[in-house]
Design a protein that fits this description.
Layout (H helix, E strand, L loop, with lengths): L5 E3 L19 E3 L19 E3 L19 E3 L19 E3 L19 E3 L19 E3 L19 E3 L19 E3 L19 E3 L19 E3 L18 E2 L1
Parallel strand pairs: 1-2, 2-3, 3-4, 4-5, 5-6, 6-7, 7-8, 8-9, 9-10, 10-11, 11-12
Length: 249
């Protein structure tokens, strides 16, 4: 067993992972949907490049601090508050921290290899430490209490951006994110969408549940295949782009 390089133990009732401590050849380990709290058994598995621990009861991620070969780490749906032990995992390209109790994302500011980052369902009021993560292609900041998205203006490689259910009023920081093909801003307080007028690579745009009265500024978004405008106080419910069938009011 000590020669194992990949192990999937999803959806069992595992609490104690100490028997894994000697599997030093492991490259990939998946432990989603268990009852794992203590990660100390993983501290010496320094060959790991991929680790999934979604839907457990993890609080302390410090045992992962020396797993510097990780390129893929998923810790969604746990009870994590402090992510500072992850600050040196600079090979990470994918990091999922959705549905935790994180408020401070400054430990991520040096993880410049990241291309995909999920932080949804946390209490991150200040996303400014993310401004230097310019290799990001996908970012999820939905349900994070984010109001000021100006730090995102530098993330010009973004292809997908999720900002649902925040308190955003000003979308002008998104004006230069011209690589975006997927943008969702449902359940915010947006009134003026004219800053989105030049995002001509957009294929899907979701703006439901805002305060938008005029959508005519979207007329040049000719690549759109989906446009969601439900629950807005629109004066004119004519679809601003063709074909009109892509609009949802």
């Amino acid at each position: 067993m000590t020669n194992l390089i990949s192990l999937n133990l999803d959806d069992n009732q595992i609490v104690d992972i100490s028997p894994l401590a000697n599997l030093s050849d492991l490259i990939g380990l998946t432990l989603n949907e268990n009852f794992v709290v203590d990660l100390s058994a993983l501290a010496d598995l320094t060959n790991l490049t991929g680790l999934q621990l979604d839907a457990n009861a993890v609080v302390d991620v410090s045992p992962l601090a020396n797993l510097t070969r990780l390129t893929w780490l998923s810790l969604g749906d746990n009870q994590i508050t402090d992510i500072s032990p992850l600050t040196n995992l600079r090979e990470l390209t994918l990091l999922d921290l959705g549905t935790n109790q994180i408020t401070d994302v400054s430990p991520l500011e040096n993880l410049t290899s990241l291309t995909e980052l999920n932080l949804d369902n946390n209490a991150i009021a200040d996303p400014s430490p993310l401004a230097g993560l310019t290799n990001l292609r996908t970012l999820d900041l939905g349900h994070t209490q984010t109001m000021d998205i100006s730090p995102l203006a530098s993330l010009t490689n973004l292809d997908g951006l999720i900002l649902n259910a925040n308190s955003i009023t000003d979308v002008s920081p998104l004006a230069n994110l011209t690589d975006l093909s997927f943008l969702t801003l449902n359940e915010n307080q947006v009134t003026d969408i004219s800053p989105l007028a030049d995002l001509t690579d957009l294929i899907s745009l979701s703006l439901s549940n805002n305060q938008i009265e005029d959508a005519s500024s979207l007329a040049n978004l000719s690549n759109l295949q989906e446009l969601w405008l439900e629950d807005n106080p629109l004066g004119d419910r004519t679809c601003p782009v063709q074909p009109e069938a892509i609009c949802r009011f």
